[in-house]
Design the sequence.
């Protein structure tokens, strides 16, 4: 039986990446399938300059613009005129996408191209022959960053999309050649999304209630300021038995952390645990051990006298619920 499996497929207008451990999805990312990738280098055109925020907005296509911090102006290569330390509306410039769009915020671009001297000179030469909005150098599709982080643990990497298969194979050939042998193209008559219960997984991640094996549950709520996870004993029995509450809280912490990763929650996260003051130190240490090594830096700030675990997590990309809107 395969213990660790990466599944990459298309889900509506997105690319879905899932990592399974013993048939349970433990990591999931949903990437919008669009041309704008991290590290794409564009010949952009300055749309406007907003001096009060010390920024410019640079069009990278007729319908997309990117935020540019004017503190990086000294590194900016201007193609339509000789650089003089200033920037004007209509200037054609070479920029690299450093951060994709999140919610209503525009993507972020930078003048630092991250290239060797020779590579940069080559890009500038290409720019001299191109019109504004040209892609001068394509960056890596976002979903391959998921593969980069999980491939070493995988016993199987599978996809049912031929274009994704070719892209993944090329990536593995260049970066992780030993893993090419576990890459498989799925072409069975039974649909892959049915085999891996994709819709059931998505339904779970849309649902605010998640049931635990003990009969307890966690309820996830979102506000503008924070994410709240409420732990309820629900159908659990023998709450007065030794360590029952501690065990439920530990089970809830495990599932809460799984849901935080799958749903890509960030910012302030509060977990309202079942009150168990005699075991506050043990549950605190358990939380720290459970979340250790989280890729987005999830950290425990404190457990309050009301037994609420206060946590913070860095925002690297949009939460899953935003990506799923209109999907």
Sequence:
């Amino acid at each position: 039986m395969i213990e660790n499996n990466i599944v990459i497929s298309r889900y509506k207008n997105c690319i879905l990446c899932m990592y399974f451990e013993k048939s349970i999805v433990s990591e999931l990312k949903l990437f919008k399938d669009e041309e704008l990738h991290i590290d794409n280098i564009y010949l952009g055109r300055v749309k406007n300059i907003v001096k009060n925020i010390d920024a410019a907005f640079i069009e990278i296509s007729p319908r997309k613009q990117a935020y540019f911090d004017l503190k990086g102006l000294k590194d900016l290569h201007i193609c339509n005129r000789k650089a003089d330390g200033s920037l004007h509306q209509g200037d054609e410039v070479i920029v690299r996408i450093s951060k994709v769009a999140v919610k209503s915020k525009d993507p972020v671009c930078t003048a630092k191209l991250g290239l060797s001297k020779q590579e940069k000179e080559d890009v500038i030469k290409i720019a001299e022959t191109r019109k504004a909005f040209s892609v001068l150098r394509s960056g890596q599709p976002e979903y391959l960053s998921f593969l980069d982080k999980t491939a070493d643990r995988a016993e199987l990497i599978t996809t049912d999309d031929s274009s994704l298969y070719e892209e993944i194979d090329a990536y593995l050939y260049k970066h992780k050649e030993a893993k090419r042998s576990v890459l498989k193209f799925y072409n069975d008559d039974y649909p892959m999304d049915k085999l891996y219960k994709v819709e059931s997984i998505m339904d779970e991640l849309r649902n605010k209630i998640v049931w635990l094996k003990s009969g307890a549950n966690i309820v996830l709520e979102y506000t503008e300021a924070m994410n709240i996870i409420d732990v309820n004993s629900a159908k659990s029995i023998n709450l007065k038995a030794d360590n029952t509450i501690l065990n439920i809280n530990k089970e809830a912490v495990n599932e809460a952390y799984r849901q935080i990763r799958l749903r890509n929650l960030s910012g302030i996260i509060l977990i309202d645990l079942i009150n168990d003051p005699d075991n506050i130190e043990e549950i605190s240490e358990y939380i720290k051990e459970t979340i250790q090594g989280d890729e987005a830096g999830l950290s425990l700030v404190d457990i309050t006298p009301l037994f609420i675990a206060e946590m913070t997590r860095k925002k690297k990309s949009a939460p899953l619920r935003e990506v799923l809107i209109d999907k």
Q: What stands out?
A: The chain has three domains: 4-33+140-199, 41-137, 208-323. The CA atoms of residues 261 and 295 lie 9 Å apart. The longest strand covers residues 41-50. The helical segments are 117-127, 143-150, 162-175, 192-195, 198-206, 244-263, 280-291, 320-323.
